[in-house]
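INFO batch 0412 | record 1 of 1 | parsing
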Amino acid sequence: MNQTSFPAQLLACVEAVPAFDQLEELLRPGALVTASGLPGGARDLLLAALAKRVPLIVVLPREDDAPQLVDDLANLLDGARDVLRFPNLDLSDADDDDDDDDDAVVNEGSLGARLRITNALGDPDAPPAVVSTATALLQALPAPTRGVLGELELAPGQTFDPEAAAYRLVGVGYRRVSLVEAPGEFAIRGGIVDLYPLGADQPLRVELFGDEVESLRHFDPTSQRSTGVVPRARLSLIDPAHYRALSRDDRACLLDHLPPHGVLVLFKPQRIEEVLEHSAARFADSRLELLEPAAVLTAARRCTRLQLALAPAPDGEPRREAGSEVEFPFVSSAFTAGHSLEAVGNELGRLVAREQRVTVCCFNDAERERLAELLGKSGLEPELTHDLRGPNEPPGLSLVTYSLPGGFRAPPNLWVTAAHRLFRRTRRGELNARVRARLRGEHLPVERFADLEAGTYVVHVSHGIARFQGVVRRDRDGKARDLLQLEFDGSDLFIPTDRIGLIRRYVGPTARPPRLSKLGGRAWKSKTKKAREAVQDLAADLLEVQARRELEGGFAFPPDDRLQDLFEESFPYTDTDDQLTVTAELKRDMERPRAMDRLVCGDVGYGKTEIAIRAAFKCANAGRQVAVLVPTTVLAHQHGKTFAERLEAYPIQAEAISRFLSPAQQKDVLARTASGEVDILIGTHRLLSKDVHFKDLGLVIVDEEQRFGVAHKERLKALRNKVDLLTLTATPIPRTLHMALSGARDISILNTPPPGRSAIETKIVPRRPKLLKRAIERELAREGQVYVVHDRVRTIEQLADDVREWVPTARVLVVHGQMPERQIEERMLAFMEHRADVLVATTLIENGLDIPRANTLLLDRANHYGLSEMHQLRGRVGRSSVKAYCYLVLPKHGEVNDIARRRLRALEEFSDLGAGFQIAMRDLEIRGAGNVLGAEQSGHIANVGYDLYCRLLKRAVAELKGDLGVGTSLSVERDLDPEAAEVEVVLDVEAYVPDAYVDSVPLKIEAYRKLANARGEEELEQLELELVDRYGPLPEVLQNLFALRRLRIRAAGHGVLKISRQDRVLRLKCRERERLAAGVVAHHDRLRPIDEHMLYLVMPDPEGSDEDQLRFLLEVLGPAPESDDLSEAPISVERLRRERRRRQRAREHQRKMRSRKP
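INFO prediction complete | emitting tokens
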């Protein structure tokens, strides 16, 4: 195997040709060189090879090309050099016409990134490669002679004063916070300083020893855990006011910062000049200080320039500027024979037969293995490898996992391409680091919403609904401890922090505050009893349906055949890992001899439709029919087009039935469906009408079942045991509910956004005509479309007139719920078909419209919407690789209440891909629960709170499945009823989280909660490492808190119920004396049995403190043995029916007893 990495092997292909040596020789200071013979893949290899040798600035004419080039160069350089994106102008800030708002002129984050890049270009050891657009070059920077506006240098061993640094940071616009999550924030916690530099990709953690820097680490802002050591750091400190005060003589272009030996690479130089002129004219009336295009071009001519051309200039045709030319020997690796699986197999076979050395790069391992399987069916034998099939390898075909931008052919017989090019798919980039952080592990941002703050409503498992008042410290016998103060109706309750697992934030179905419970009152017990009975019935219903499906059986679809393979390979995009997983789950269900009933949940635009199409194809390919139900006529039309396009080349007939068809056409479609000629029928609830007949219905696909009426749901319910049923929903299912339903309902979750999607840029803006006009014009200038959402029907036409006045050339349509339904459908269809540019609408557009061309949303009066509604509306844009914008428009004058402001800030903050699925749960928890469980459960959720409801449901499912009883593991038992399972330890130990260690109440509560939720000693050790990483070494009182938790974990594993001190002995109450005695690892001679459930442990030092006894107990009790996994009991329909009858009889008896009371 080759010892060099695959990217290095690719770069060697360029470095080895004579033209590369010639190019290096010609790139002298001030030279102009044109390079040709570089198709897309080879072009990027050349740029990466140069970036390893010299500082590099690459200028592109188009903004959309920059992110992909940054990713591709970073992959090829493989850490050898940084690849940095020079930020474009913040156009929404440039549009602001409020002269009183100076902060709108300069975006500190963009400015910080710009100055960081100018500093990095001067690094003599490892200068970066910088990718810029032409427009971005127009914004002025400080001239190199000025230096930077301020710097903060950090390195281990350096003296560092945190408070002095804080003073400097605040002075240049940073915010001091308790938890650093966003650029421009910093926090100081004892000997730990967290800092997120403006313009940086990752935040920085500075650990101090006294007044000296001990270490520097990057950390993940989501999990707050360190991710890697940093040898040194240099931060640009930007004072925007200082920047604005620069004179024209002190201003320069990015290109002025390129060192003399650096190279400026120009893509399409003539187009770059045109973009410079156009952008300068467009922003001439803005308050941004821009350079003249001539100044940028003059700066470019002072640089060593490399122009890229696909082919050399024809003989006799001069270039626009005289210079040297170098021709590389690379040509395109594109196919001309076709892009079907058969054509690809034939062409690859011909290449191998001609003794070509062929390497195909696949997006991930799954795609590589799938392609190998498909090519194997074509008679090829590809080698799965990690290396390039180079000149010393025998001719043949290799498949590697690597995200290659394009492809190339090089003499004599090297042929390299990407799998997406073989099948003419749209290439998708990889998820960026911030998105991956949000998707991995348990550290999801939604957990932040569960943190407790003073005034938050909470649910105590035993006592009911209360208002959390904060953490208070109390002394008992000179020992301090923290207590959680809960306000009930008429009294307060103080509970120890180790019982924090008994309380959860109250989540209810409305924004109305819940009524506080009375301590000791009967109302809470009554509510929990009713909720428990409701979830038992629900669990029984779900399990009975599952058991009946197992008993009655169903049609087992055959495994995939070659036609299914061909169809799936024709998908024009690369599947996400979640799509592959969910598709496999669906197929496994369909191939089993029982009726499928699976719910697929995925955020807007995550690929649910393609999964449904594959399931429909599998059904139709087996000779059975499919019904696809959607909630609106427009969606039926849209799905009809999507299905027809995907199925065009296959012998499967799909039809959509709606009011867009004439009565005669509808009758024809229904007749062909009844005869079996139509394989897939798409429509609204019309498909459930009595006149719709299928010859052999095998699969029903329902999009957003909760939007159908009661009668339609009953009809679907009747189908559940007869045919396979697939339900799709864009409403996120909360993780807690998903876990509670595990084993009772088949649920698949799409949690990964498609790679290559750009995060939707979300901004809160005032309602200023000039700003909104610019936003619309910018979208229309790139041939896109705009949604303008307004919440009042009576003023929506006035807003549409405003839009027409702002942009007279725009074609504007209005849609609202008081229009005739047919008119709504016709106008939405016109917008879908791009017969209109701007759609001014109410929230009607929330329901599933998929228009990749529409990428700007103006949400008027955004303060009147809920977070979930805004999230769903925002999901209408950003459904392609094009950068999308969402403007949350507020009244220019008028107050916005705190609740609305928090919602808007949350939506603005969590705009990254991968965050939508989590933030939506803040408002969608109950909506998600109602969609899955039914509206009748909402009242019980309101009474006991969402979290407790899920716990009760989880217990009910476990009971009915026989998963509770002797041998129940600690973790399962604590999930179901933490209060009953918690070991009581009565020792006077001083144990708490000191204010000096964690000074933020929410972060302190987070630490207490994580400690209380630790399931085992390994988890406890990980938590200890996390706290040391985030806050520094544990103080003694916090070490005691960890020791108490470790004792509880060990004691629970040995069956101990209570530990207390009595005179000279420790009393251990347990379930089984022998089980406890067997777990004692030391000091057997000190055990004194009292009865079957009680042991005394004689203390070695009776005068010792309780802290000493705690350490002694940890010596005595060793780690508990691992619990065996619980086996899943088979579900019996008859058993479930008996259980239901028993509960009904019990409830009937209780009603009779109550009726007899006077």
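INFO post-check: Residues 341-422 form a domain with the Rossmann fold fold (CATH 3.40.50.11140).
INFO record closed
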